[in-house]
């Protein structure tokens, strides 16, 4: 493969196109849950089948991908090891994981834990509920669409207004559903509602048919450092709203107590 043709210039410098495509293939395999084939990957990513096979052979040889019976590809040992290293660095403390498990056991719904990573509210851990409701786009490390997610609104509501403005003002707020707030001024009003009620809501703003409730937790200085979220189908929301709101707020309160008493220490938004 020609190294010159493999490079492209951007405003951030020279990028290697082959590396970029190889990472796309690896990500697609990780998301396929053991059902990826070369033909599927080629079609999904818009990569020529010959190029796709070349990338797959390279990833297999490096140990990032394994080829299974029937021409199916899955994540290999080196990719799994990389994932474990990243989780150890960015994952929540054991104490917060215990609180998330408690929330999961009490709600029997899908629950999420978010915290700060590199200055951005980031999904750190989740547990799937008995009813198997989980939004496909959300996974550990997800940082997108803060304006549409209860977990992020719960945190942003308690940050200084100027910090929220720096993070979001002037950034297009994409309409993911007809309910998504896409105006920054309207979004600031929504954050005031979050502070008033003590928890955030995502009323089918991120994904149709799904409602989320989220409560923040705080460090010793009063700054928000994360949030606990419960996700529920819209059909069950009305009857469960009050109880779920109390449960996510209880989880946030427990985490806040641990932080303020020094039993756990995690980085803040600063």
Automatic annotation (TrEMBL):
Q: Which PROSITE patterns match?
A: HTH_ICLR, ICLR_ED
Molecular function (Gene Ontology), one example = DNA-binding transcription factor activity
Gene3D superfamilies membership: 3.30.450.40, Winged helix-like DNA-binding domain superfamily/Winged helix DNA-binding domain (1.10.10.10)
User: Which keywords does this Swiss-Prot/TrEMBL entry list?
Assistant: DNA-binding, Transcription, Transcription regulation
Q: Which SUPFAM superfamilies match?
A: GAF domain-like (SSF55781), Winged helix' DNA-binding domain (SSF46785)
Statement: the UniProt record of this protein carries the keyword Glycoprotein: no
Which PANTHER family does the annotation name?
Answer: HELIX-TURN-HELIX TRANSCRIPTIONAL REGULATOR, ICLR FAMILY, HTH-TYPE TRANSCRIPTIONAL REPRESSOR ALLR
- What protein am I looking at? DNA-binding IclR family transcriptional regulator
């Amino acid at each position: 493969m020609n190294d010159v043709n493999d490079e492209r210039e951007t405003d951030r410098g020279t990028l290697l196109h082959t590396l970029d495509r190889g990472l796309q293939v690896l990500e697609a395999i990780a998301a396929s849950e053991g059902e990826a084939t070369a033909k599927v990957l080629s079609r999904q990513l818009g990569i020529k089948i010959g190029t796709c096979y070349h990338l797959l052979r390279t990833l297999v040889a490096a140990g990032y991908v394994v080829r299974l019976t029937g021409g199916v590809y899955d994540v290999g040992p080196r990719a799994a090891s990389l994932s474990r290293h990243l989780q150890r660095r960015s994952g929540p403390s054991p104490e917060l994981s215990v609180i998330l498990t408690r929330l999961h056991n009490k709600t029997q719904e899908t629950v999420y834990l978010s915290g700060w990573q590199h200055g951005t509210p980031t999904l750190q851990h989740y547990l799937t509920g008995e009813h198997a409701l989980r939004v496909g786009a959300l996974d550990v490390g997800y940082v997108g669409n803060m304006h549409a997610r209860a977990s992020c609104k719960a945190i942003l509501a308690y940050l200084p207004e100027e910090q929220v403005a720096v993070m979001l003002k002037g950034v297009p707020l994409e309409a993911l559903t007809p309910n998504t707030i896409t105006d920054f001024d309207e979004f600031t009003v929504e954050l005031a509602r979050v502070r008033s009620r003590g928890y955030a809501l995502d009323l089918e703003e991120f994904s149709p048919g799904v409602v989320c409730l989220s409560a923040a937790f705080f460090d010793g200085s009063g700054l928000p450092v994360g949030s606990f979220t419960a996700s529920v189908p819209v059909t069950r929301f009305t009857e469960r709203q009050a109880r779920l709101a109390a449960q996510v707020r209880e989880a946030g309160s427990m985490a806040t107590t641990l932080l303020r008493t020094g039993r756990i220490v995690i980085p803040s938004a600063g």
